[in-house]
Design goal:
This protein is of the alpha+beta class. It has one domain (20-163). The chain is built from four helices and three strands; from the N terminus they run ααααβββ. α2 (20-64) runs antiparallel to α4 (76-87). The longest helix is centred in the first third of the chain and has 45 residues, at 20-64.
Length: 165
């Protein structure tokens, strides 16, 4: 094959169509079906991690406070920590509403000195919106085009068992 024929066939596929005509639809398909959903899935992971940080901070503080302060809706655990989180790390999460927190207590193991441990359980629920909502008119998928909810719970022994309920 001569050089002139090679230059004439450059940019054409086997059936004679131009590859540039196929590039636009292929790129659109890659962006809508792979790239944007991948961005949304990465933002889901980031949101979950940041919700875990919020819950960890709440359960740590609840283990140090008396039960009256920890269960108060205007107290440190249920109001102050989520407000600080929303103005700090919470900026990276598209929160659809304020975080909801439930604080409960249960009895733990009884030691040889007849003292029963108290364990605090903090459950944090955060409703988030997707980072890039993908318009899919025929399907509703939480995390892609609909809000999703994380409910994270953790427990920790009380530092002072007398503070427990």
């Amino acid at each position: 094959m001569t050089g002139r024929r090679k230059r004439a066939q450059f940019g054409r596929n086997a059936k004679g169509a131009s590859s540039m005509a196929e590039f636009g639809p292929a790129m659109l398909l890659l962006l809508i079906c792979i790239f944007f959903p991948l961005i949304d899935m990465m933002s889901l992971a980031l949101s979950y991690g940041l919700c875990m940080v919020l819950n960890y901070n709440q359960v740590h503080e609840a283990s140090l406070l008396p039960w009256q302060d920890a269960t108060s809706p205007t107290g440190t655990v249920q109001k102050a920590i989520p407000d600080q989180w929303l103005s700090g790390m919470g900026h990276f999460v598209k929160v659809a509403g304020p975080p909801a927190t439930a604080v409960t207590y249960r009895k733990g193991a009884t030691g040889s000195d007849k003292i029963t441990d108290k364990i605090v359980i903090v459950q944090t629920t955060v409703q988030c919106s997707p980072f890039l909502p993908i318009p899919l008119p025929w399907i509703t998928a939480p995390g892609l085009n609909a809000p999703f909810t994380f409910s994270v719970a953790s427990e920790r022994p009380m530092e002072n068992p007398d503070y427990g309920q």
